[in-house]
Amino acid sequence: MQGDCALHRETEITSSLLRSPTACEKPCCPELKRILEKNGITDCMFAFIGGGKMADCLVDGFFSAGLIHKDSVAISVKSEKSKLSWQQRGYENVFTSNVELLSRFGKGIVFLAVHPDVWRAIITELPKDAFVEAKLIISVMAGVSMKELQSDLSPYNSGIVRLMPNTPVVCGAGTFLLCAEKNIGTKVEVAKYLTVKVGAYKEIDEDRFNVATTLANCSTAFIYTIIDAMADGGVLNGMNRTEAIELIARGVYGAAKMVLVTGVHPGMLKDNVTTPSGATIVGIRALERAGVRRAFIDAVCECTERLNEM
Fold first, then answer.
1. DSSP conformation letters of 126-166
2. Please, is 211 exposed, middle or buried when counting C-beta atoms within 10 Å of its C-beta (0-12, 13-18, 19+)?
3. Is 98 annotated as a binding residue?
4. Whole-prediction pTM
5. Range of the domain at 287
6. Is 128 flagged in the annotation as binding?
7. Is 27 within any annotated ligand binding site?
8. Could you read off the pLDDT of 83-134 as tens digits, one per residue?
9. Are 163 and 62 within one domain?
10. Is 272 annotated as a binding residue?
11. Residue 65 belongs to a domain
């Protein structure tokens, strides 16, 4: 029986790693332009306040999916070094001034992609009307609530979306959490369209947004740690590290797909792999002896607590 993971997406995740860039020659692809215009957005520019890791992943993901051209992205960064780094990759619209970014390219979609502590400093420096010409604001900042965003961005009132991606967006396998302002109307369809082109989205109410962020975003680092540790075990037992990492990653990919496609409880899927007196159950015993299950529960709780504190 096929399960429903309740995630909205356009296509299944493929086994390919990074897709070759297929961005349109024009500032944005025709399909995206139609979606934008249908929702009252005539400016195709994507303006990013913040040029760190998350902005990097989103820009790369959108570009690889053919949604944008490098000329249709504008980014503000905090240093000349970061500015040069982006420009060396072909992005010319890079600024060290948020005011200049918004005055020149803040009439389309504006992404807020900075650390919450940095955001507090930015919002105090910007003029009150800095965002009034933006047609849609998408925040990818962890721990900054919709209520805080509405207060910070006032008098802007054209629609705010909280969107929390994870880094696999760069290879078309992202998971997005989505929470939209009540008065946003159909503009939320723009955010949904972007997510399904580079992954999948799930609508989450605000009171569960932080724990959902832990499960969808922070969890990727947990999985990378598992892959790294298991690779050490493979090397200890004579495997080449590169081969070990590939085998483990494929195992993780297959296990995740089994959960999503079948809808079977992961505990039952685990039981289907173990056999009486077999190697797998011995390995499970070793994990339980080391307290791995409790460690993961604690990790989820502590990550969520930290997000609540932001």
1. S-TTTTTT-SEEEE--TT--HHHHHHHHTT--S-EEEEE--
2. middle
3. yes
4. 0.84
5. 212-309
6. no
7. no
8. 999 999 999 999 999 999 999 999 999 999 999 889 989 998 999 889 989 9
9. yes
10. no
11. yes
